[in-house]
Amino acid sequence: MSTLPYAVSDSVTLLGRNLKHILRYPTTAVAVVGIPVIFLLLFVYVFGGALGVAASGAAHGNYVNYVVPGLVAMTTATGAVGTSTSVSVDMTEGIVTRFRTMAIFRPAFLIARVVASMLQTLVSIALVIGVALLMGFRPTGSAAGWLGAIGILALISFALTWLAVAFGLTAKTLDAASNAPFPLILLPMIGSGIVPTDSMAPGVRQFAEYQPFTPVIETVRGLLMDTPVGSNWIIAVGWCLVITVAGYLWSVRAFNRDRASQGGGMAQVGAAAG
Amino acid sequence: MAIPTPPLAISVAQLRKSFGEQVVLDGINLFVEEGTIFSLLGPNGAGKTTVVKILSTLLAPDDGVATVGGHDVVREPDAVRGAIGVTGQFSAVDPFLNAEENLRLMARLWHLSRADGRRRVAELREQFDLGDTFAKPALTYSGGMRRKLDLAMTLVGSPRIIFLDEPTTGLDPRSRRTMWQIVRDLVAGGVTVFLTTQYLEEADQLADRIAVLDKGRLVAEGTAEELKRLVPGGHIVLRFATVADLDRAARVFAGEGTRDDDELTLQIPGDGSVQALQALLGRLNSASVTAQSLSIHTPDLDDVFLAFTDQARLERMVRG
């Protein structure tokens, strides 16, 4: 007996479950959009006057154009926090154990999770850009530029989603699951998200230039503002592929292992309960 | 050893499992005939949940063979999964969905047709009396209600073999009785039930056969009656007002009774039948001894449980 014929139907069934969760209990979804929007308001209306000159060498009005790609990148990170949290909640509930005792296409659980998270992150990015447009964001990129930017954002979302799934599967507690991806939210700031890297102190500057968010942000900025992208897009795609493969392998390994055979806390819980 | 002839729903041979240094299952053998209730009885930590996890494909054994519904749990896990339903100790409902959505989710994952799914959900709603709370999310349910939904979800695909891991732990007496009735109805419909419990009464009430698991080993197996016969639990306790009375009674029942000078009691083996009581009182009368009170103790599964689990522990202490 094989469950392969049910690959699509099982994945769709579980995707429906995830989307129902997001719509019915929107606290996580609100945080995924809310955090970058709050930072957007802060950076443009509070720090923008001071930062704007340093960042874009131009007047305040243009700083929003500089900062939006950084906050859009941050949205992929807040999406990762949401993903990790949702996965961890699922793992602490018995329902996933139930799924494992049923003749279901095994990867469906992970596929449904990743698709739901991608949809959530991409919709959140659209909302953040919508708010930015209301605040005076004026992108000048072509249609092809937009498509490219969406593509690169989809790739980084995909990569961070797999990483976040692994965080959620391996976290011992819900707190750990929501904290693990948290540094990702800060990374765009220690990159070219808020101010150009060449204004940073030595050491920090090298980190900022070589961390994965910077080429992603630079590519999105270039494509949306119609400025040169250079080799940034190649580096960005490379980073996305590396993170995706690592996150995927880690997630699959974490999902397939016998949780109770690790000899750790779960084993003791299993033995004590049994 | 005679090989059982009726069709077997579950058979387990030499099953072993350790977590690191800790041996959880130390060579378990058991057979469960189709259409019967088999109860695995044991204290906390005996390894009951580990047995259920292995039989329901959640955990791989270190050694030994287990087949469920005719399929090997290691080599054909999907075939096993297609034949079983599992209700574990911890609630396996989706708390963010309501009862209807939880049941529909199961119908889709069991790959029932739309019409079959709808019919099955309606049947279970009726059977489990879920009507009142059908539209509220499961996280608002009481413990008993959640457990009922949990079991209903297990039954959506009409599995032929059902694992119930401590299904009534933490339930109030009324919910417990409801659960028992549901289990009896299931078996009346030809389903095989593998039940773990730490409640002797539950095993006594429900099970066709009972195995006592202690520290990873089966220490006794049989019907409730057979197990009760294995332990010398039946006795009559006579209580006396003075040590002098106890002395005289002890002389009457010399070699038969066990005296307790602190409690002023004499314990005499016996099944508590009217004849046995009459004979006993007759002997007391003819010796002119008056007992202050009398109590009858019939063997129950508590005796079995304590006798076997203690004995096993003693053996280990001696060996170790």
Automatic annotation (TrEMBL), chain A:
<dbReference type="InterPro" id="IPR000412">
    <property type="entry name" value="ABC_2_transport"/>
</dbReference>
<feature type="transmembrane region" description="Helical">
    <location>
        <begin position="110"/>
        <end position="137"/>
    </location>
</feature>
<keyword id="KW-0812">Transmembrane</keyword>
<dbReference type="GO" id="GO:0043190">
    <property type="term" value="C:ATP-binding cassette (ABC) transporter complex"/>
</dbReference>
<dbReference type="InterPro" id="IPR051784">
    <property type="entry name" value="Nod_factor_ABC_transporter"/>
</dbReference>
<feature type="transmembrane region" description="Helical">
    <location>
        <begin position="29"/>
        <end position="54"/>
    </location>
</feature>
<keyword id="KW-1003">Cell membrane</keyword>
<feature type="transmembrane region" description="Helical">
    <location>
        <begin position="143"/>
        <end position="169"/>
    </location>
</feature>
<comment type="similarity">
    <text>Belongs to the ABC-2 integral membrane protein family.</text>
</comment>
<dbReference type="InterPro" id="IPR047817">
    <property type="entry name" value="ABC2_TM_bact-type"/>
</dbReference>
<feature type="transmembrane region" description="Helical">
    <location>
        <begin position="176"/>
        <end position="195"/>
    </location>
</feature>
<dbReference type="InterPro" id="IPR013525">
    <property type="entry name" value="ABC2_TM"/>
</dbReference>
<feature type="transmembrane region" description="Helical">
    <location>
        <begin position="233"/>
        <end position="252"/>
    </location>
</feature>
<protein>
    <recommendedName>
        <fullName>Transport permease protein</fullName>
    </recommendedName>
</protein>
<feature type="transmembrane region" description="Helical">
    <location>
        <begin position="66"/>
        <end position="89"/>
    </location>
</feature>
<dbReference type="GO" id="GO:0140359">
    <property type="term" value="F:ABC-type transporter activity"/>
</dbReference>
<dbReference type="Pfam" id="PF01061">
    <property type="entry name" value="ABC2_membrane"/>
</dbReference>
<feature type="domain" description="ABC transmembrane type-2">
    <location>
        <begin position="27"/>
        <end position="258"/>
    </location>
</feature>
<keyword id="KW-0472">Membrane</keyword>
<keyword id="KW-1133">Transmembrane helix</keyword>
<keyword id="KW-0813">Transport</keyword>
<dbReference type="GO" id="GO:0046677">
    <property type="term" value="P:response to antibiotic"/>
</dbReference>
UniProtKB/TrEMBL annotation, chain B:
<feature type="domain" description="ABC transporter">
    <location>
        <begin position="10"/>
        <end position="240"/>
    </location>
</feature>
<keyword id="KW-1278">Translocase</keyword>
<keyword id="KW-0067">ATP-binding</keyword>
<dbReference type="InterPro" id="IPR003593">
    <property type="entry name" value="AAA+_ATPase"/>
</dbReference>
<dbReference type="InterPro" id="IPR017871">
    <property type="entry name" value="ABC_transporter-like_CS"/>
</dbReference>
<protein>
    <submittedName>
        <fullName>ABC-2 type transport system ATP-binding protein</fullName>
    </submittedName>
</protein>
<dbReference type="InterPro" id="IPR027417">
    <property type="entry name" value="P-loop_NTPase"/>
</dbReference>
<dbReference type="InterPro" id="IPR050763">
    <property type="entry name" value="ABC_transporter_ATP-binding"/>
</dbReference>
<comment type="similarity">
    <text>Belongs to the ABC transporter superfamily. Drug exporter-1 (DrugE1) (TC 3.A.1.105) family.</text>
</comment>
<keyword id="KW-0046">Antibiotic resistance</keyword>
<dbReference type="GO" id="GO:0043215">
    <property type="term" value="P:daunorubicin transport"/>
</dbReference>
<dbReference type="GO" id="GO:0046677">
    <property type="term" value="P:response to antibiotic"/>
</dbReference>
<dbReference type="GO" id="GO:0005524">
    <property type="term" value="F:ATP binding"/>
</dbReference>
<dbReference type="Pfam" id="PF00005">
    <property type="entry name" value="ABC_tran"/>
</dbReference>
<dbReference type="GO" id="GO:0005886">
    <property type="term" value="C:plasma membrane"/>
</dbReference>
<dbReference type="InterPro" id="IPR005894">
    <property type="entry name" value="DrrA"/>
</dbReference>
<dbReference type="GO" id="GO:1900753">
    <property type="term" value="P:doxorubicin transport"/>
</dbReference>
<keyword id="KW-0813">Transport</keyword>
<dbReference type="GO" id="GO:0016887">
    <property type="term" value="F:ATP hydrolysis activity"/>
</dbReference>
<keyword id="KW-0547">Nucleotide-binding</keyword>
<keyword id="KW-1003">Cell membrane</keyword>
<dbReference type="InterPro" id="IPR003439">
    <property type="entry name" value="ABC_transporter-like_ATP-bd"/>
</dbReference>
